[in-house]
Amino acid sequence: MKPFKTQKHQRQVAKAAGNVVQAGRDYSQQHTVRVGIWISITLTAVLAIGAAVFIRMLSKENSGIELLIEPSVEQPAEQQRE
């Protein structure tokens, strides 16, 4: 059974082999997660502001935007033939 190797031992072996060992934590994963969170927050804020502006524009009578929603009513067969 091999003895437990400490970080100090691993660094010494790496130096002897000519490899470079970085001591400390790897922050690249945390940085990627933080950037993703900020992108999500920014997109959510932009969508919320856009929706608020659009609703405010719709509430004004002279905005130039009209949404006409007509209920779909099927016509009787007699009217379709004409």
Blueprint (SSEs and pairs):
Blueprint: H1 7-17, H2 28-59, H3 77-81
Q: How would a crystallographer describe the biggest sheet?
A: none
As a whole number of angstroms, the C-alpha radius of gyration is: 33 Å
SSE-based structural type: mainly alpha
Task: Label the overall shape.
Answer: elongated
Beta-strand segment tally: 0
| Unreliably modeled segments | none
| Helical content class | 55-70%
Structural summary, described in words:
- The protein has 82 residues and is mostly helical.
- It has a domain at 26-63.
- Helix content is 59%, strand content 0%.
- It contains three helices and no strands.
- It is elongated.
- The model has no long low-confidence stretch (mean pLDDT 73).
Supply database-style keywords.
single chain, 82 residues, mainly alpha, 3 helices, 59% helix, elongated
